[in-house]
Amino acid sequence: MISFNQKTHIILLTKTFDQKNTSMALAMTTKILMSIVATTMLIELALAVDHSVGAPSGGWDTSTDLSSWASSETFTVGDNLVFSYTPNHNVLEVSKDDYDSCSTSSPISSNSLAPTTIALLGDGSRYFICGTPGHCDQGMKVEIKTVVAASPAPPTATTPASPAPPTATTPSSPTPPESTTPSPPSSTSPNTPSPPASTTPGTPVPEKPSPPPSSAETVKMTAVSMMGLGFLMMI
């Protein structure tokens, strides 16, 4: 029999074991989630593209056609803008209205340390100008339109080719048996029996008298007669 103290000890051990298992499961789940997040970030970093503003024929200055440059590029969420410029320039991110009017009074952000890297973390349009007086009016501004990366197309479901219907074969009609017309029996005229040849009776030959029996035949006839007589006597 198990005592009360032993039962209590077993229950405590079971609870401790369950708590340890729960803690280990939570720790394992946390590690898995952190690994997934880290892997996702690494993939995004690996796929991210750095766009040097105005490159390769120009840069962030008043002489580069920045509008044409932007229209030739594809900006995807996760990419980066890299502004390279001289100390007399800077980079201001502004609203659409301030971009159109080249207003520098209320920028969203301001950067004056080159090179300036700006991450494109969401889709949509963003607007950048140079804050140096007169530079925005000279064309030193750019609109960046960011799009979401296209997801890979799902594999095309291939419909299995339906088997071709069996070819209907028309049963060949049996060839009718050749009609054979029985040839009429050839009329054979019965042979006329030839008349018996007439034989002219010859002149009868006179019979010769049979010779007298020899002595051997006489003995044989005598023996046969004796046997027949003996048989009659036995009866």
UniProtKB/TrEMBL annotation:
From start to end residue, where is composition biased (Pro residues)?
152-214
Give any GO molecular function from the UniProt entry: electron transfer activity
Can you list the GO cellular component terms from the UniProt entry? Answer: plasma membrane
Whether Metal-binding counts among this entry's keywords is yes
Q: Which domain of life is it from?
A: Eukaryota
- UniProt keyword Glycosyltransferase, yes or no: no
Q: Locate the Phytocyanin domain: which residues?
A: 49-148
Which keywords does UniProt give here? Copper, Glycoprotein, Metal-binding
What is the protein's name according to its record?
Answer: Phytocyanin domain-containing protein
